[in-house]
Amino acid sequence: MKTKEIKTLINLLNTNDLSELSYQEESFSLTIKREVVENINYTKKNNVIIEEKEDDAFHIVSSPIVGTFYRTPSPDSPPYVEVGSTVKKGDVLCTIEAMKIMNQLEAEYDCEIIEIYPEQASLVEFDQKLFKVRPL
């Protein structure tokens, strides 16, 4: 089998979104496999591993910066949002302190808070999951 024919088979595999393709001639056989990666996240809570599959009905709000995550504007204030809260575009979700600057993270669209991942006053990394939301 020629390289051009193998490339044609690979192209056939990719364009038809197949995970495996087998080809056989008299004295030659070829199987091409493509790894299919499913978007699954694992979190550990109370020593139990929880599998979370990404769902189109929900979105993840991630941290735009590295810093300290605060759910409240001040220590004796109520949280900006709670699980089950409905927020409007522009409402503050949390504050992230970075280099002594308080950065407020605002909702980019109307949504319902489904889950809040970090604990109060915990360090968050760039692109770390902060909130699971359902767009409204």
Question: Would you kindly provide a written description of the structure presented here, covering whatever features stand out?
Answer:
With 136 residues, this protein is mostly beta strands. The protein folds into two domains: 3-33, no CATH class; 56-135, RNA polymerase II/Efflux pump adaptor protein, barrel-sandwich hybrid domain (OB fold (Dihydrolipoamide Acetyltransferase, E2P), Beta Barrel). The protein is 10% helix and 45% strand. The chain contains one helix and twelve strands. The chain has one helix at 3-15; strands spanning 20-24, 29-33, 40-45, 48-53, 59-62, 67-70, 86-87, 92-98, 101-106, 111-116, 122-124, 129-135. The strands form four sheets. Strands 5-12-10-7 form a four-stranded antiparallel sheet, with no helix packed on it. Strand 3 and strand 4 (48-53) form a beta hairpin. It is elongated and about 80 Å long. The chain starts with a helix and ends with a strand. The model has no long low-confidence stretch (mean pLDDT 82).
Which secondary structure elements does this structure contain, and how are they paired or packed?
Blueprint lengths: L2 H13 L4 E5 L4 E5 L6 E6 L2 E6 L5 E4 L4 E4 L15 E2 L4 E7 L2 E6 L4 E6 L5 E3 L4 E7 L1
Antiparallel strand pairs: 1-2, 3-4, 5-12, 6-8, 6-11, 7-10, 8-9, 10-12
Outline:
The protein is built from 1 helix and 12 strands. By secondary structure, it is mostly beta strands.
Strand content: 35-45%
How many structurally independent domains?
A: 2
Structural class: mainly beta
CATH superfamily of the largest domain: RNA polymerase II/Efflux pump adaptor protein, barrel-sandwich hybrid domain
What string gives the helices and strands in order? HEEEEEEEEEEEE
Runs in which pLDDT lies below 50 for 5 or more consecutive residues are: none
The strands making up the biggest β-sheet line up spatially as 5-12-10-7
**Individual helix count:** 1
**Total beta-strand segments:** 12
Global mean pLDDT: 82
CATH architectural arrangement of the largest domain: Beta Barrel
